[in-house]
Amino acid sequence: MLTRIPTPAVDVPGLAEALCQWYKDQRLTAVARPATPSGMLVQCRSRAVERVVGMGAALTVLLRHEGEDLLVEIGAAKWMGKGVGTGASLVFHWMLIPVGIGVFRQYKLPRQTIIFLRTEAPKHLRSAP
C-alpha cells in the first residue's frame, strides 16, 4: 500500500520515532532503522504471547520524503500463520476467537497507521537552516 501525505519539510526520523512510540502504545513491539538516505524503515509486531495464540499482527512501514510529500509504503506480514491458526482452530475450537482477533487486528493496522501519520506528520517538521 503506497500513500502520499502532503507534508513539505517533514522530519522523517522524528516521525518514525513517534510511530514507534504509537505502536508501543498499541501493545506492539516496534523498531526504526535507517532504510535510505531520505527514509526510515519502521517494523512492528505483536508480543510473543499474542503471536503464539494467533492474535499476532506485524507490519513494515517505509517512510521517505519525496518533493513536497511524505511517501508511506506499508507491507503487512504474511498471513500464513493466520491460515494455519484457523485450520488448527477447527480442531481446537477455543483457538478460533484469538485467531479471529489477530486477523481483525492485522486488517485494521495499516489504515490506523495512515490515520496516525496524517495526524502526526505536520507536528514533525524539520527546522529551517
Structural account:
The protein has helices spanning 12-25, 48-52, 80-91, 96-120; strands at residues 2-6, 28-36, 39-46, 58-66, 69-76. With 129 residues, it is of the alpha+beta class. The chain has one domain (2-119): Double Stranded RNA Binding Domain, CATH 3.30.160. Helix 1 (12-25) packs antiparallel against helix 4 (96-120) and helix 3 runs antiparallel to helix 4. The N and C termini lie far apart (33 Å).
Write the layout of secondary structure elements.
Blueprint: E1 2-6, H1 12-25, E2 28-36, E3 39-46, H2 48-52, E4 58-66, E5 69-76, H3 80-91, H4 96-120
Antiparallel strand pairs: 1-5, 2-3, 3-4, 4-5
Helix pairs in contact: 1-4, 3-4
Question: How would you describe this structure in keywords?
Answer:
129 residues, 43% helix, five-stranded antiparallel β-sheet, 4 helices, 30% strand, Double Stranded RNA Binding Domain, alpha+beta
Broad shape: globular
Reported for the largest beta sheet, the result is: 5 strands, antiparallel
Mean pLDDT: 74
Rounded to an integer in angstroms, the radius of gyration calculated over CA atoms is 16 Å
First CA to last CA: what distance? 33 Å
Which CATH C-level class is it? Alpha Beta
Count, helices: 4
At a glance:
Helices cover 43% and strands 30% of the residues. It has 129 residues and is of the alpha+beta class. The protein has one domain: Double Stranded RNA Binding Domain, CATH 3.30.160.
